Amino acid sequence: MISSKITGTGTFIPSQKIENTDFLNHEFLNADGSIFSAENDVIVEKFKGITGIEARRYAADEFTTSDLAFFAAKNAIKDANLNPEELDYIIIAHNFGDVKPGTIQGDTLPSLATRVKYKLGIENPNCVAYDVLFGCPGWIEGVIQAQAFIKAGIAKKCLVIGAETLSRVVDKYDRDSMIYSDGAGACIVEKTDNSDSGILSHASQTFAKEEAYFLHYGGSFNKSEDQNIRYIKMFGRKIYEFAITNVPKAMQLALDKSGVEINSIKKIFIHQANEKMDEAIIKRFYRLYKKPVPQGIMPMSIHKLGNSSVATVPTLLDLVLKGKIENQQVHKGDVILLASVGAGMNINAIVYKF
Q1: Is the whole-model pTM more than 0.90?
Q2: Which residues are CB-contacts of 191 (< 8 A; sequence separation ≥ 6)?
Q3: Using one digit for the tens of pLDDT, what is the confidence trace for 175-214?
Q4: DSSP symbol at 223
Q5: How many other CB atoms are found less than 10 A from the CB of residue 93?
Q6: Are residues 340 and 271 in contact, defined by beta-carbon separation less than 8 angstroms?
Q7: How far apart are CA 232 and CA 94, in angstroms?
């Protein structure tokens, strides 16, 4: 049976490190423009307690999202020992296109995937490049699409990238601006005739009733600012409740389709959105099987890297595979679960065996 496997991974983590203390002099406002009663040191400490974030990374001014994607792609291609001319597809997940510092417009002409193909110097016209807009689960969805192309017999090798520069679409007066970061992660997905390894199953969902606008564009909380300039906004409490209710069920759906027992899962790589939320999701997932959460099952990178949207899962996966996260390893034969949730509201999960 034709399936697909990940043969190489790569990341690009920007060098500009922003600590929580860098926000102590910010002016944070409520949604109605009113001033917080609490001091910034209290706000920042409470933020760390909920999200787990201590620092995040911002891209240098000279780089855009497609640059970060290109850097991660090169690392993944090298890791897979692949000739880029052999790629059938380049799939890039992002949300806002290339946003230059000081601008308010996302640039997606041409597509970011086309830009990466250009930067890689690929001449093969049969290498198809396109973008995916699927919120934070975009990279996982790209991997699912690559798997579909391979199983359909129309592709053998695909490059899937998740890249974002969220630092350029945040309202500095909004406390939520502290969550977001920049980065890129990539992988090579290739055909395999070994159905006992690689992608075993997946689940993908879109919820589009009230939850469709839990993440949206909105004006600055500073009402003296031009309200026609829009920034990423979210209803944090609603997203938290939605995620802990629905993500475990999607993970269960993917796992049950795979035929793998819950006790065989060695690691769960979940979107790095909020530490407390991720812990609650994992706890509820294991509760569905009436099992306790195994110690060390969930690697985390959010503490130092923040939430880089589509880049969190591929970055986390690459860091663990390269031995760069303490006490976290994946070995041959291990079964892992990848999962994400984000704007849409979209949810997806993949069960994968090394």
Answers
A1: yes
A2: 2, 3, 4, 150, 155, 156, 157
A3: 999 999 999 999 999 998 877 789 999 999 999 999 999 9
A4: T
A5: 31
A6: yes
A7: 14
